[in-house]
Structures are given as structure tokens and as C-alpha cells.
Design goal:
The chain is α/β, with parallel strands linked by helices. The protein contains 17 helices and 18 strands. It has helices at 2-7, 15-25, 40-50, 68-81, 99-106, 117-126, 142-147, 151-159, 176-185, 215-226, 238-250, 264-275, 286-289, 309-316, 337-347, 386-394, 423-432, and strands at 30-33, 61-64, 90-93, 112-115, 136-139, 166-171, 190-193, 203-209, 231-234, 255-258, 281-284, 299-302, 326-332, 352-354, 371-376, 404-409, 414-419, 442-444. The protein is globular.
């Protein structure tokens, strides 16, 4: 396990890992507050794997997450950390996916289940997920699960689990409801608080006061002035996300909206394009963006300020990670001055104000993403692997491998990012050629 951790380039423990792992390994219940990107997933994943009896084919750990994206992310990290433990069976149970394959996987009694509350509760109710051997329960991003209305589902799930278990509760914020849940489901938990404020040296945070009706125009000016290769724009309402994305498309920006009204297939497609750099701007609500694992995010833009300063801090903490410099830009009107004051009080420091007149704008400016995504109508169920796609693109062609980016494989589709100048060539190669001796439909995503 230690050799595997080293091979994954874990060199120094983060504060949440250093403070929580000793308690987790001793079997203590844990109530932990930590910011987004703090390394908490590795802390509870190592704890789960440490006490796992791999030769016992029963479900021993359950991790509840607010969104399918976070559940997938947690499962991936668990699988990486479990490489040193052959035959460890990890299953993800989320809504938006057919029940049939999940039922078949549950018959093999996975060691660890990661899932969203609704789907986990459905399987517990059917008796297809058997919790009688469960000895560890993790609530990840518990505050967001409460925001999304999962309180009753969570409590029903907990009622079905053995009383003799270790319960780990992780939350980015610490509302009274979290304390109440902890009191109801945990026994003498170790309370770990990691500094929730982000390192201001890493994040350049600038506020711009605007007049009524200037919000979208100022956002365009910010994009033209700073030219971030990737940015997340936060709105407070899902309807506004879609309207703003449509407006930016008309002005020549590759913007995608992420909100609760999207079907799961659409949501997956948006996230694939943003993570592989074939879309430059993601416009999202706080609920929709929670749990996203976006590396090298250059800017966070608050199209609207959150009424909660704690949420504001977590928004901007998505940039400036892993030692990289980050940029956080916020728009506000004079009527919202109280929100700015609340943020200053929360972070114990004044914010920097700049005039919108300092922004350098350009006529007909376009912020084109460097990559284009090609969607292939074959995936994991067709035995298609990333290496097969890479081989189809580069074998017996003059397309260099370095111009091919991230390859994502799902059950029935695959997505490959290619550099924009070679997109037509790559599309032609895949459309006219074969992958593993078979022809698949291929299309370019807009």
C-alpha cells in the first residue's frame, strides 16, 4: 500500500489527511470540515482499504456522495489506491443509469459501494444491496447532500446499516443541521477543522462594481481582457446559466451551461468537453458544480455573488490549486455592497476593487478552445479501450500522438479530444477506418 501511494506521487500529507487519518485508522468516528480540493478523498479511501477484508466477499464500506460526478471521482481514486490489493471490487451506484447492470454487479457482492443517496436507497429497499456486513459509512460533501434535499434519504439509509460501524462525515461548511446529524449518527466523533480559507497568495481576487444592465457586457470584457483558457462562471439560478451560455455563444465564445435541468447524457457531455479543454467556459450553479474535479482551472468568475460568504470562498477555491496561480473575478452592484462586506469579514481582509474602465476589450474577439471533442458510438461494453482509439488515430497515418488529448470511455460511448487544427483529419480517419476491426459512428461535438 505504501509503495502504491508513493507511485501515485503522494509525497506530503495535506492538513486534512494529517489530522484525520490517525483517527480513521484507529476506528474512531470523524466529523471533518475541509475545503474543496483538500485531499479528504484519499484520507477516507486509505482508511476504508486499510480495514478491508478482501477475501470476504460482502459489502464492507459505503460512501454516499451528492452527485454522480463526485461518486465517479471517488470511485476512480479508490481504484487507484486499491491497486496494491488485487481483487478489490468497487461498485458505483448512481441514478441516470439503467438498473440491470447494477443488479448484476451487486450479485457479486462488491467490497465497497460508492453512490448517490437516491439510487443506494432504492437498492437497499429492493434487498439487492446487502448492508449487514457494513463496518464503515462515509458521508462525503454532507452539506451539499442536505442542500439537495437528501436529508430523509440519508437518515433512512443509516437506519438500514449496522449500529456497530465507523461513521466518517465530511463537510465543506458547518451548518447546524450537520451538527444535528453528527449527534444522531456518530459516537464521540473526533472533530477536525482544517482552515477553510484559501491561500490569498495563490488566488488573485478582484471585484468590479457594475451598473444595472451591465452584467453580461462586463463578463465579456473580463473574458477579453484576461483571456483564460478555462473558466467557471457562477450564477445563482439555473435558468440564468442557460440564458447566459446562449448569449455567449452568439458572441463567439464556446460556453456550456451545467444545471439541474440537463439530462444525465447532456451533463456528461458538457463535463467531458470542459475537462478535455474543448470548451473554454463552464456556466454553473453551486449545486451543479459541487464535487467537480477540474485541474488547471485558470479563472473563477462570480457573475453574481453568493449570499453566503462561505460558499463564495469555496467557489473561488476551485482555482489556484496544487501550487498554481489562480484568478477570481466578481461582479456586484451597489445594492449588493453588504455581500462584499460579509466576504471581507469572513476572510478577515479587505477585497481589491478595480474599475471596469481598466479592462482592455477587442472588437470581434474570439476565445477558441485549443481542442475539439469527437464522440464515438462504442464504449466499455463494446470492449473499446483508450489504446484502441489512440492506435486507430495514429497507426498508418501522419497524425502525431502528441496532438491527441484526453480519451474518456463510458459504457456505450467514447470521447477523444484532438487539437483543433487536426480535428477534420482525425474525424475522417475514425469515420472511414476501424477500431478493433469494427466500424463505429463518429461525430464532432459542437
Amino acid at each position: 500500500m505504501l509503495a502504491n501511494i508513493q507511485s501515485l506521487d503522494y509525497q506530503v500529507m495535506t492538513p486534512i489527511q494529517a489530522q484525520s487519518l490517525p483517527a480513521i485508522l484507529k476506528g474512531r468516528d470523524l466529523l471533518a470540515q475541509a475545503k474543496t480540493g483538500s485531499g479528504k478523498t484519499a484520507a477516507f479511501a486509505i482508511g476504508i482499504l486499510h480495514k478491508l477484508a478482501v477475501k470476504t466477499y460482502r459489502t464492507q464500506a459505503l460512501v454516499l456522495c451528492p452527485t454522480r460526478e463526485l461518486a465517479d471521482q471517488v470511485s476512480k481514486e479508490l481504484r487507484l489506491l486499491a491497486r496494491a490489493m488485487p481483487n478489490t471490487n468497487i461498485l458505483t451506484l448512481c441514478g441516470g443509469k439503467p438498473m440491470g447492470p447494477q443488479l448484476a454487479s451487486l450479485e457479486r457482492n462488491p467490497h465497497i459501494v460508492v453512490g448517490t443517496p437516491g439510487r443506494v436507497l432504492k437498492h437497499l429497499g429492493k434487498g439487492t444491496l446487502k448492508p449487514d456486513a457494513l463496518n464503515m459509512l462515509v458521508l462525503d460533501e454532507a452539506d451539499r447532500m442536505l442542500d439537495m434535499g437528501f436529508h430523509d434519504d440519508i437518515m433512512r439509509i443509516i437506519e438500514m446499516t449496522p449500529r456497530q460501524r465507523q461513521t466518517l462525515l465530511f463537510s465543506a461548511t458547518y451548518p447546524d443541521e450537520i451538527k444535528e446529524i453528527s449527534h444522531a449518527i456518530q459516537i464521540d466523533p473526533v472533530d477536525v477543522r482544517v482552515e477553510s480559507l484559501h491561500d490569498n497568495k495563490q488566488i488573485e481576487q478582484i471585484f468590479y462594481e457594475i451598473q444595472k444592465g451591465e452584467r453580461t457586457r462586463t463578463l465579456v470584457a473580463l473574458l477579453q481582457h484576461y483571456r483564460p483558457e478555462s473558466s467557471v462562471v457562477f450564477c445563482n439560478r439555473k435558468q440564468q446559466c442557460q440564458e447566459l451560455a446562449d448569449e455567449l455563444w452568439q458572441q463567439g465564445f464556446h460556453a456550456q451551461a451545467l444545471h439541474g435541468d440537463l439530462e444525465q447524457r447532456e451533463r456528461d457531455q458538457v463535463l467531458v468537453q470542459f475537462s478535455n479543454k474543448s470548451s473554454s467556459i463552464l456556466i454553473a450553479t453551486d449545486v451543479a458544480a459541487r464535487g467537480l474535479d477540474i485541474k488547471d482551472l485558470q479563472a473563477v468568475i462570480n457573475f453574481e455573488l453568493s449570499p453566503d460568504p462561505d460558499i463564495h470562498i469555496h467557489r473561488i477555491g476551485r482555482t489556484g490549486r496544487a501550487g498554481n496561480a489562480g484568478l477570481a473575478l466578481s461582479l456586484f452592484m451597489a445594492s449588493e455592497a453588504k455581500k462584499v462586506t460579509a466576504i471581507e469579514d469572513f476572510q478577515n481582509s479587505p477585497v481589491r476593487m478595480d474599475q471596469t474602465s481598466t479592462l482592455k476589450t477587442r472588437e470581434n474577439f474570439r476565445l477558441s478552445p485549443p481542442m475539439v471533442t469527437l464522440c464515438i458510438s462504442g464504449g466499455r461494453k463494446d470492449k473499446v479501450r483508450a489504446g484502441d482509439i489512440l492506435g486507430a488515430l495514429t497507426a498508418n497515418t501522419d497524425l502525431p500522438g502528441k496532438q491527441i488529448g484526453k480519451i474518456d470511455i463510458s459504457d456505450y460511448h467514447a470521447h477523444v479530444a484532438v487539437e483543433r487544427p487536426v480535428a477534420k483529419q482525425a474525424l475522417k480517419i475514425l469515420a472511414e477506418g476501424k477500431i478493433k476491426g469494427r466500424r463505429f459512428r463518429v461525430r464532432k461535438l459542437r
